[in-house]
Amino acid sequence: MSDFFVNVDWTEIVRACGDTLTMLGASLALTVLFGLPLGVLLFLTGRGQLLANRAAHAALALVVNLLRSVPFIILLIVMIPVTLLLVGTSLGVAGAIPPLVVGAAPFFARLVETALREVDRGVIEATQAMGATPRQLVFGTLLPEATPGILAGVTVTAVALVSYTAMAGVVGAGGLGDLAVRFGYQRFQTDVMVVTVALLLVLVQILQTVGDRLVAHFSRR
Amino acid sequence: MTEASLKSPPDAIVFADVRKAFAGRSGEVAALDGVSLSVRQGEVFGVIGRSGAGKSTLVRLINRLERPTGGRVLVGGQDVGALDAAGLRALRRRIGMIFQHFGLLSSKTVADNVAYPLKLEGELSRREIAARVAELLARVGLSDHARKYPAQLSGGQKQRVGIARALATRPDILLCDEATSALDPETTREILQLVAGLNRELGLTVVLITHEMEVVRQVCDRVCVLDAGRVAETGPVADVFLVPQHPTTRAMVSEAEHLEDEAADLSAAPGRIVRLTYRGEAAYRPLLGQVARETGVDFSILSGRVARIKDTPYGQLTLSLEGGDVEGALARFRAADVQVEAVR
């Protein structure tokens, strides 16, 4: 057994786990912070909605689609000057977070938009008929009613971020994915590959299970 | 102004030549095409029509969920179209609304749904809101369900929550948009009784949209029949129901009452054929027998309906009359407040 794991440096693995979790936690929090309002705006400016505005919606949609169509590995490189400006370094875990957020926030915004579209039109109309302000409509009706859908979106985004972090090794951010690429793939150390992939699988499983539980908890239908 | 118009209650809602067109695939489609009507304060006003007649559009213009493309809608003398955002919100708080699919928030409990309009209004403290919610839930008979979520309730219970919520801000107008169309007949009756009670006890003006004649018959004082975006006829329910003028109204009444095509049956009947219509007190008098005895006329009932419109009993009978003094009999009926219509 220990013969098989001959190449595995367990302290390295523990550090990589820490890096992955740090990147995931920080970028997920920031993705939700920026993506949620963006998704709400996408929804509200959409056709037939409260703030329907074709030009504003088209502009937002263009930005979102642009960011979503750039492959993440390219985004990492292109973002370097911006990252330097934002966090003072383009390297390491800190340097990986801005590109992760910029890559994931538009994706999450679309998921939020979709979740909001699922809110029963009759409920929106009933809220308007009660004399709600647009702000009250968003915070009192839309977001609470879309909470299960938004939580499902957070779960999907978190899992996507796990695979994005694997590429963050390009800017020296480390993490489990980076370990898998550098040792497992480039140096043919299959044992390292197996351990890192197994750990990533466990992480994804945990994220999905927690996400599903939260969705179930907030679903009252 | 005549004395009569001085006495009648003021108009709560007025439609003046209201038009509403929607952009369709092949140009504009007129949902409402020059509608004028008025709803009196404190009455239950029905709007009936087939699907696509423009009923829902009409009711949604009252609280400006839709804006007219022409004409004016006045609520309490105020031009709804001229209101700014704050004015519109204030108006909407004076108008409760219930919906076919209830429009309840699935993420909030029954109590929180009912409290929601009060929270939006932001004028009452939490304790005052809790007290008001308890009072409203008691009124609609749902005190035991306060902490449930809408998904745990039956259709009738959901609509009761809808009604409690619509009443929360003490509105003086209640709009019902096909509020019973998703409910079974028994539950429909219960909900209509609740609405009729609110109209009586709170003096609430009710505008009720429906495609079912039966709903109109049970609760409405006056009714407007919409046909392809125009008013076919408006009047007291008994008039529209018993003596329909417009072909659409006639067709809808026949369907609701399961009236057969009379002409076919009548050809075989002997003697004079007349239709008698009576309502109110006249319904209780043993008139047919009396008149038959006094005038020596024999009668047979060819078809008929006897029921109630809201609280008024009515009857409408098609008779064939033979022998004796037929003219005298008809005169006796007319003298007793029975409407006589010669069929053949």
How would you briefly describe this protein structure?
The complex is a heterodimer of chains A (221) and B (344). Chain A is mostly helical.
Topology, element by element:
The complex is a heterodimer of chains A (221) and B (344).
Chain A: H1 10-44, H2 54-69, H3 72-78, H4 80-87, H5 92-117, H6 121-129, H7 134-167, H8 176-185, H9 190-218
Helix pairs in contact in A: 1-5, 1-7, 1-8, 2-5, 4-5, 5-7, 6-7, 7-8, 7-9, 8-9
Chain B: H1 3-7, E1 11-24, E2 27-40, E3 44-48, H2 55-62, E4 70-75, E5 78-79, H3 85-93, E6 95-99, H4 110-121, H5 126-139, H6 155-167, E7 173-177, H7 185-202, E8 205-210, H8 213-219, E9 222-227, E10 230-236, H9 237-242, H10 247-257, H11 262-266, E11 272-279, H12 287-295, E12 298-309, E13 312-322, H13 326-335, E14 339-342
Q: What does this protein look like?
A:
The complex is a heterodimer of chains A (221) and B (344). Chain A has 221 residues and is mainly α. Chain A has helices at residues 10-44, 54-69, 72-78, 80-87, 92-117, 121-129, 134-167, 176-185, 190-218. The longest helix of chain A is centred in the N-terminal third of the chain and has 35 residues, at 10-44. The model of chain A has no long low-confidence stretch (mean pLDDT 90). The relative contact order of chain B is 0.12. A six-stranded mixed sheet of chain B has the order 6-7-8-3-9-10, sandwiched between helices. Chain B contains 13 helices and 14 strands. Chain B has 344 residues and is α/β, with parallel strands linked by helices. Chain B is elongated. In chain B, 37% of the residues lie in helices and 31% in strands. The A-B interface holds A 120, 122-123, 125-133, 136, 140-141, 144-145, 147, 218, 220-221 and B 63, 65, 85, 88-93, 95, 97, 99, 101-108, 116-117, 119-121, 149-151, 165, 169.
